[in-house]
Write a structure and sequence with these properties.
The chain is an alpha/beta fold. The chain has 19 helices and 21 strands. The chain has a six-stranded mixed sheet with strand order 10-1-11-19-2-20, sandwiched between helices. A four-stranded antiparallel sheet has the order 13-14-16-15. It has a three-stranded mixed sheet with strand order 18-3-21.
Length: 516
């Protein structure tokens, strides 16, 4: 099964590093090596201390997906993780719930208010366009495949400096994704410590942001490009893309880097994000569900089973080398997807910008990022109230459920008149409404907004030495960062966001031996 996934993906991939192909294609050899590897248990296993953390984001997964899967698959890896740790059933991601601000929150402990990260497709008022001489300010912030050297290829060649925005305040220097991060990360804290080694795999080179402001937080960062070969539109390709990164973790568990070619320490913090469930919901004609209570359709069931099996292989690899008991798993999601129910309504992405530009003047909308919500940056910020009123007065066409602007927006974020990254208006539509470029859009589910379906995600912290339990109190994925540091016996206050926002460690994490 694994070799078929990889073969199907490699068969259409271009310009992939041959060394990486050889390493990842050697799945069977790796499994044999793991099976025969001597146990490398930590020096003090009797203490029950946690020495490393595997951080997993199952993108697109709802808390309800987890609950339903555990109910129908009580022997699954996810079920076993849930009963050997704390299952936080009322966890919420950042708002907006786009991958970029959500991942920034997970690794820093901060909301967009302090990370400065609002979307993978945003606007910045004081930076200059790519390739410019910085004589003008204001530019799109692209944190997708558009900044790759070869965006249509799996091995994209990394980030193309010529496609990056420029900073007039710093000699018109290119602004890398990690330069946009305003607070430090758990990777930076761990790497700066004696013996700390970090690794992670994400879905594209723009996740250079994981390095944090220092630019060097992750020792071994693996970021193939998910846009290659229309990966997200074909579940078989998406599973193969995930499989590349699962294998990178297996290599790392066995004392190699992500390629499997070079010796490396087993990381103190490592992990990956899964895209298969996200893809299944986007591809499915019913957004992944066969009814209104979250029963998965065939596509989503396939993705759930694949992801669960991959997590089981990661756990088994740790057991084989004697590291499972001293490793904590943190399993969450950067975002859910909406709608959760099969029915949905489409509002075209031209509706809101055309309304505002038509009434307030051409070019009034600098940037409108529209998926599950409409996030808007205005050219003339003095027209924010007029713009909000126009949207509200045209509810029948805009699909609006709630509008965040002016004081209501400032309850969540800094004042957009002061902070150059903050949008002026966020439109949250009625449940089931998505903004799409065409009526018959192939994408059937979206994320990136402030709604329940996009923000209510799974969160499990698991280790055999933890007292198991379920916690129904509201918690946030921003609490993951200080929790990881606390479990590894670092001071969470080393994180800027923890000091700025008072982010707390997740509750009820108690060791069986009585240690907290």
């Amino acid at each position: 099964m694994i070799s078929k996934l990889l073969t199907s993906f490699f068969g259409v991939a271009h310009r992939l590093n041959p060394a990486h192909v050889a390493a990842h294609a050697a799945t069977a050899a790796l499994m044999v090596a793991l099976a025969g590897a001597p146990a490398r248990a930590d020096a003090d296993p009797a203490t029950g201390k946690i020495h490393r953390v595997v951080l997993i984001s199952i993108d697109g997964m709802h808390a309800l997906d987890l609950a339903n899967f555990i109910k129908t698959h009580p022997q699954s890896a996810l079920a076993q993780f849930a009963v050997s740790g704390v299952n936080y059933t009322a966890a919420s991601t950042t708002r907006p719930s786009d991958s970029i601000p959500a991942m920034a929150g997970i690794i820093t402990g901060g909301t967009p208010s302090v990370t400065g990260m609002y979307y993978d497709d945003a606007w910045h008022r004081t930076l200059s366009p790519p390739g410019s001489n910085c004589s003008t300010v204001g530019t799109v912030i692209d944190l997708k495949e558009g900044i790759d050297k070869f965006p249509a290829q799996l091995d994209s060649g990394g980030i193309d400096e010529n496609k990056l925005p420029r900073d007039p305040a710093k000699g018109c220097a290119p602004v890398y994704p990690h330069n946009l991060m305003r607070v430090n990360t758990i990777f930076e804290v761990i790497r700066a410590s004696k013996g700390g080694y970090t690794a992670y795999s994400e879905k594209r080179p723009a996740y250079d942001l994981l390095h944090g402001p220092s630019g060097i937080g992750v020792n071994d960062l693996y970021t193939p490009e998910i846009a290659a070969n229309a990966t997200i539109s074909d579940l078989s390709k998406t599973k193969a893309f995930d499989e590349l990164r699962v294998l990178s973790i297996l290599f790392e568990i066995n004392g190699k880097d992500h390629t499997g070619l070079n010796a490396a320490p087993v990381p103190t913090l490592f992990g990956m994000n899964f895209q298969s469930i996200n893809a299944a919901k986007k591809i499915s004609a019913n957004s992944g569900y066969s009814d209104h209570i979250g029963t998965p359709d065939a596509l989503l069931a396939d993705a759930l089973n694949y992801t669960d099996g991959a997590l089981q292989r990661i756990a088994d690899a740790l057991k084989t080398v004697g590291l499972f008991d001293s490793t904590a798993f943190v399993i969450t999601a950067k975002h859910g997807e909406t709608p959760l129910d099969p029915p949905r309504t489409i509002v075209l992405t031209t509706v809101v910008p055309n309304l505002l530009n038509g009434s307030l003047g051409a070019g009034s909308v600098l940037k409108a990022t529209e998926k599950s919500n409409a996030i808007i940056w205005l050219k003339d910020q003095s027209k924010t109230l007029a713009a909000a009123n126009l949207i509200d007065n045209n509810r029948g066409t805009t699909g609006v459920g709630q509008i965040f602007a002016l004081e209501s927006l400032k309850l969540l974020f800094p004042d957009p008149l002061v902070d150059p990254a903050v949008p002026d208006i966020i439109v949250t539509p009625n449940v089931g409404v998505n903004y799409e470029p065409t009526v018959g859009s192939a994408t059937k589910a979206e994320h990136g907004g402030l709604g329940e379906n996009e923000t209510h995600v799974p969160l499990i912290v698991s280790n055999p030495n933890l007292k198991p339990g379920a916690n129904q109190a509201p918690v946030f994925t921003t609490q993951i960062a200080p929790t990881i540091l606390n479990m590894l016996r670092y001071d969470p206050n080393q994180l800027d966001a923890v000091r700025l926002q008072g982010t707390t460690v997740l509750p009820n994490l108690l060791m069986k031996n009585g240690d907290n």
